[in-house]
């Protein structure tokens, strides 16, 4: 006897014992009886060898067609009987998910339908799926045993006529007479139960996934006849599943939008995506996973993500303001799923950065317009404080978005580019950004970095460079930086030459050698000046050893230093005779060694140490060069005599603004009133008189008297206009030079190409206006550096 297990038995064709004809009906009766026993699970009683010989003989005697058709008829009838007796009763009990209840009274009865509870629905559906699964398993087992008996027909008849093999034909019969049974709609009931179980699970109930998985595997095993690769699952069940999912997630989207804030919406969306993924992987087909995922994404993300981002109460702005990093991470992940370009999120981030930047700009401009309204600071230094605050707030904003970008969005390059454009936009809308950044660096290089380690100092400079990268008009920054650097170097107020050089190196790495050439030249001038002064002091020792006044001079190359330092008219001064003699001595010494050079003295950046005798004691005063010149006037006055403001101005030729500042330092500041002002007030007027304060006292022998500075270090509108005029002039020169360089190299060039190349060359320094380039091209035409082509007026030729 043969086992009814899955292993196939090797059989040899029986010997041909009877060469006569065979009675098909008798033989088929034997085979059909055996098949019935198999379905009744009595296969152990059968002789497989005799059954195989019977089937072999029928095929050999040309009855294969009748045998094949009889097999199909038998199995089809058996399956129809199974549906009617085993599956139909279960289907009718769960078809409508209802219970019936009889109400009696007064001889009247009525039947009402009561909805089943979730548990009853779940259990009834699972019972039906398990029943189908049991019939399916029995059928598959019987088909394997029958195919063993009819193996010879498979090899000879089915393959020759390209008919389905017995096993495959049996599965097709199950598909047609069970799953697609027209009378009892078993398949539709299976689909409805699976969809109902999925809905129960979506609603939070627990379902028997093993029964559903078995049903899905059955549907995947049943293929379609005429469509290659398609199964009953993909052709019949999956479309229903996807349609019901669209309906569910359309409703779910509306519900979540109505009931959830943005954070909850994102959490539940991710949860739904994970649930559908796990459902497809665990008991549905893996082929359904991308399809159901797309439905969830289209409904919960694509259709509603803009509303989530723009929500006033809980959207992107709220998440950023309240540091909701987890929500931002979810938002990024979900946006990335449906749009690789992250268009909506990038646009929202861009708009938010520009909005926050505009607020920072507006706050700074308000202080500049109304400095007297600032709280906690005086009107004089409010503008300077606003400049430092603007830089700190912009850098703080940048650092916050960098943290968000790297912590929640994986440093996404597209978002990085969008943020860079946003920062560049609002920073360059602040027309004083270059000045503010230069002031920030100046303050740190004078005192802000004092006491910091080298690494800490470099970190501060890196923050400044971060902001510098966004500034479009880098030539404007260069102008301010050069002025501030000059004051630090000449006033000896820089905390460290090494830190200064570190900053210049960083600027060179950003914009190239040409940008820092003059800055490095300023350092070179200071070193050369030290060497010159050592030679001069040795010269004085040899030629005038009795001299009592020491002189230290910084010799500067006019082209390296700010224009304001090399303008003779703005720094005039009449020196005392003894100082004038020393000046001429140095001039002669310098010119003898550097013939052809001209020295222009700039007293506004100098200082002097002078010894002054008061009634009680002598003090050494450290004052500006202008203050020294003013004090020397009182050497020739008797006690009690005075000079008016106009007399001091006439005697010294010091410019008004510098004279007022120095007189305020000497006569108004309480702790350093070397002079007595009449009448006493903070302001200096033309009629004021000044006399030497012989009664001055101080506990210190050595006293530093700082010049009353423009506490507001930012420029006034007049000063700013002057700076812009200088920058515009430099830009004209740079544009002219770029045009000549390009035309000299290219010889002939069309107008638009020339404009584009000039823009490209100058963009590292500033963003040239097309109108400026056109105007400079016209100037080059007038000066005959280039000429228009006679054939094409848009074409230019270089003239050597």
UniProtKB/TrEMBL annotation:
Organism: Lipomyces kononenkoae
UniProt-recorded name of the protein: Cullin
């Amino acid at each position: 006897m043969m086992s009814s297990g899955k292993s196939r038995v090797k059989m040899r064709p029986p010997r041909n014992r009877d060469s006569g004809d065979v009675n098909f009906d008798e033989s088929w009766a034997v085979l059909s009886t055996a098949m019935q026993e198999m379905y009744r699970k009595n296969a152990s009683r059968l002789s497989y060898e005799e059954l195989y010989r019977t089937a072999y003989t029928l095929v050999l005697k040309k009855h294969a067609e009748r045998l094949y058709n009889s097999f199909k008829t038998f199995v089809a009838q058996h399956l129809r009987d199974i549906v009617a007796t085993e599956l139909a009763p279960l289907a009718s009990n769960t078809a409508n998910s209802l219970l019936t209840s009889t109400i009696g009274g007064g001889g009247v009865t009525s039947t009402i339908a009561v909805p089943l509870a979730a548990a009853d629905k779940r259990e009834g559906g699972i019972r039906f799926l398990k029943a189908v699964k049991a019939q399916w398993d029995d059928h598959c087992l019987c088909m394997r045993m029958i195919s063993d008996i009819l193996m010879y027909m498979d090899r000879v008849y089915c393959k020759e006529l390209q008919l389905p093999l017995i096993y495959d034909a049996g599965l097709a019969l199950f598909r047609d007479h069970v799953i697609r049974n027209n009378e009892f709609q078993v398949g539709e009931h299976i689909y409805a139960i699976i969809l109902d179980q999925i809905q129960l699970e979506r609603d939070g109930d627990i379902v028997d996934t093993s029964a559903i998985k078995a049903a899905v595997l059955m549907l995947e095993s049943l293929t379609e006849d005429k469509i290659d690769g398609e199964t009953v699952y993909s052709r019949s069940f999956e479309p229903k599943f996807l349609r019901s999912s669209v309906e569910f997630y359309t409703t779910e989207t509306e519900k979540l939008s109505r009931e959830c804030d943005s954070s909850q919406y994102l959490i539940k969306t991710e949860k739904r995506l994970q649930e559908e993924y796990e459902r497809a992987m665990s008991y549905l087909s893996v082929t359904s996973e991308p399809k159901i995922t797309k439905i969830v994404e289209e409904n919960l993300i694509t259709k509603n993500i803009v509303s989530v981002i723009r929500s006033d109460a809980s959207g992107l702005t709220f998440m950023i303001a309240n540091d909701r990093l987890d929500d931002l991470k979810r938002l990024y992940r979900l946006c990335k799923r449906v749009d690789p370009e992250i268009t909506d999120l990038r646009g929202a981030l861009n708009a938010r950065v520009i909005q926050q930047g505009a607020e920072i700009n507006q706050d700074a401009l308000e202080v500049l317009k109304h400095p007297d309204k600032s709280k906690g600071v005086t009107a004089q230094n409010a503008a300077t404080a606003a400049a430092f605050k603007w830089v700190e707030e912009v850098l703080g904003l940048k650092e916050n978005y960098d943290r968000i970008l790297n912590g929640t969005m994986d440093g996404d390059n597209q978002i990085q580019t969008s943020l860079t454009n946003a920062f560049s936009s609002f920073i360059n809308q602040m027309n004083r950004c270059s000045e503010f950044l230069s002031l920030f660096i100046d303050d740190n290089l004078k005192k802000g970095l004092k006491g910091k380690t080298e690494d800490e100092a470099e970190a501060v400079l890196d923050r400044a460079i971060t902001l510098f990268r966004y500034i479009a008009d880098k030539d404007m920054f260069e102008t301010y930086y050069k002025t501030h650097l000059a004051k630090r170097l000449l006033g000896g107020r820089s905390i460290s030459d090494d830190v200064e050089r570190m900053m210049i190196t960083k600027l060179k790495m950003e914009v190239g050698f040409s940008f820092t050439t003059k800055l490095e030249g300023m350092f070179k001038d200071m070193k050369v000046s030290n060497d010159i002064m050592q030679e001069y002091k040795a010269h004085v020792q040899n030629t005038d050893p009795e001299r009592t006044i020491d002189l230290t001079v910084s010799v500067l190359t006019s082209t390296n230093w700010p224009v304001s330092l090399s303008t003779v008219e703005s720094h005039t001064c009449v020196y005392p005779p003894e100082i004038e003699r020393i000046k001429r001595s140095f001039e002669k010494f310098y010119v003898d060694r550097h013939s052809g050079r001209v020295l222009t003295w700039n007293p506004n950046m100098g200082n002097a140490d002078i010894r002054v005798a008061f009634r009680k004691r002598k003090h050494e005063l450290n004052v500006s060069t202008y203050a020294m010149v003013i004090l020397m006037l009182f050497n020739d006055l008797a006690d009690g005599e005075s000079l008016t403001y106009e007399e001091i101005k006439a005697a010294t030729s010091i410019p008004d603004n510098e004279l007022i500042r120095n007189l305020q330092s000497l006569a108004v500041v309480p702790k350093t009133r070397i002079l007595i002002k009449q009448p006493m007030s903070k302001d200096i007027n033309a009629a004021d008189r000044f006399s030497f304060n012989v009664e001055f006292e101080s506990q210190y022998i050595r006293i530093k008297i700082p010049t009353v500075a423009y506490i507001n270090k930012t420029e006034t509108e007049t000063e700013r206009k002057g700076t812009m005029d200088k920058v515009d002039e430099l830009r004209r020169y740079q544009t002219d030079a770029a045009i000549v360089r390009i035309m000299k190299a290219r010889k002939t060039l069309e107008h638009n190409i020339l404009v584009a190349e000039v823009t490209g060359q100058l963009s590292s320094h500033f963003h040239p206006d097309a109108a400026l380039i056109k105007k400079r091209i016209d100037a080059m035409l007038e000066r005959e550096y280039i000429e228009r082509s006679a054939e094409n007026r848009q074409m230019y030729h270089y003239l050597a």
